Amino acid sequence: LAWLHSRKQMDLYGSLPVKREVLYGMECATAVVWFLFSYVVNLSLTWIVAISKGLLTGKAIQLGIYSIGVFLLGFLAIYFCAAVAMMLTGKVLTGILGTLVLLGIAPVTVVLLVALPDLFFVSYVSTSGMWENIASYLSPVVVYARMLVHIGSYLSLDKVKNYIELLPTIVMLI
Q1: Is the Cβ–Cβ distance between 146 and 136 less than 8 Å?
Q2: Number of C-alpha atoms within 13 angstroms, CB side, residue 117?
Q3: Dihedral over alpha carbons 141, 167, 36, 23 (to 10 degrees)
Q4: End-to-end CA separation in angstroms for the chain
Q5: Region of 54 on the Ramachandran plot (φ > 0 left; ψ -120 to 50 alpha; else beta)
Q6: Confidence of residue 174 (pLDDT cuts 50, 70, 90)
Q7: 33 vs 37, 71, 147, 164, CA distance in Å?
Q8: How far apart are CA 82 and CA 99, in angstroms?
Q9: How many CA atoms lie within 13 A of 60 on its CB side?
Q10: How far apart are CA 172 and CA 174, in angstroms?
């Protein structure tokens, strides 16, 4: 989508007999293919090193396959947030700032909702983590980080599957 910031390139792409939806779809597909290619190559090299050291187990292979899905969903969530921010703003610097806002507005809002009443109201009784539970599903970055924690600590892969099923819904909401 870098061609959107150059008038000459925009004229060139605008003159092509291809719909903008197709151009955008091709850009997204190319980004996914490059991401998957580089990740699978690096995962394969990691497995080769693990085989040479005698450390590759079935659990490691299973975790590696799950990690492809987790990292792909995280990449797509952040990529589409950045694409939406770039389309909304039109400039590189404001697009970067817009991406940070789209990715961080929900967790920051929840932190403020939790912290400010404790500071200003003496008789305030907390809601026992209700906002933290809600905030954990509002931002793709938070969901992505929670999935990485579950994968990295070899916790139950069922939790990772639940988060993988939830992440496309969050991407669609954004």
Answers
A1: yes
A2: 11
A3: -100
A4: 19
A5: left
A6: very low
A7: 6, 13, 22, 19
A8: 5
A9: 12
A10: 5
More confident residue, 164 or 20: 20
What span, in angstroms and rounded, lies between the C-alpha atoms of 50 and 73?
25
- Residues 89-107 have a mean pLDDT of 85
Please determine, for residue 1, whether its predicted confidence score (pLDDT) is greater than 70.
Answer: no
Determine contact, residues 85/102, Cβ cutoff 8 Å. Answer: yes
Instruction: Say how far apart CA 168 and CA 47 lie, in whole Å.
Output: 29
Q: At 170, list the tokens.
A: 């969050």
Tokens at residue 42, please?
Answer: 């690096």
pLDDT-derived band at 154, boundaries 50, 70, 90: low
In whole angstroms, what is the distance from residue 83 CA to residue 98 CA? 10
Return all residues near 166 (Cβ < 8 A) that are at least 6 apart. Answer: 137, 143
Q: How far is CA 122 from CA 112, 119, 126, 127, in A?
A: 17, 8, 11, 15
Mean pLDDT for 107-118 is 78
